[in-house]
Amino acid sequence: MKWFLSFALALKCLSDTTEAEEVILMEPFDPTKAGGLWYIYSRNQNLLEKTNGAKCLIADIEHDAGGMDLYKVEAKWTDPSLGDMDITLHVVDDKVHPAQYFFLHDEHRIALSILGTDYDNYLVGHGMLGLKATYFTAFRKLPADPAVMAAADKILQKNKVTRDFQIIDHSSC
């Protein structure tokens, strides 16, 4: 019993001194303005194994005119071994908050949260697939202006994100 109390006390001390990452949804968010082409610039984990080592990763978001809350996300990338790859996912917004989405796909049930965007230059998001989670940054054009990158970094700081990010290679796209 003593060891359990010591362990619990140690955990409490650690939790008091360590800040956890957060997922603070963008307020207000207009999903109709976030459509179009985004260059995925950085992420800290691959949600889908098939995008491991991806180069030239882009996402094209299109509103489905037939449904108020449906969106199509087409991701394209180059795999060094397999060549050009793509996947199309259909997304429905969460009725609780317009900056949160769920992918309607049999194989990949991904939740996506928009943490911040200015709609014209940068987008910062968080994605989850099962227990895997990633933060990512995307830009409308690359290379991104340093001021635009700084604005995206502020969103990550607001969410207390301290993970290391992988920069996606877009040099030969």
UniProtKB/TrEMBL annotation:
Alphabetical list of SUPFAM superfamilies matching this protein: Lipocalins
Signal sequence segment: 1-20
This protein's UniProt keywords: Signal
Protein name: Uncharacterized protein LOC100898997
Organism: Galendromus occidentalis
Gene name linked to the record: LOC100898997
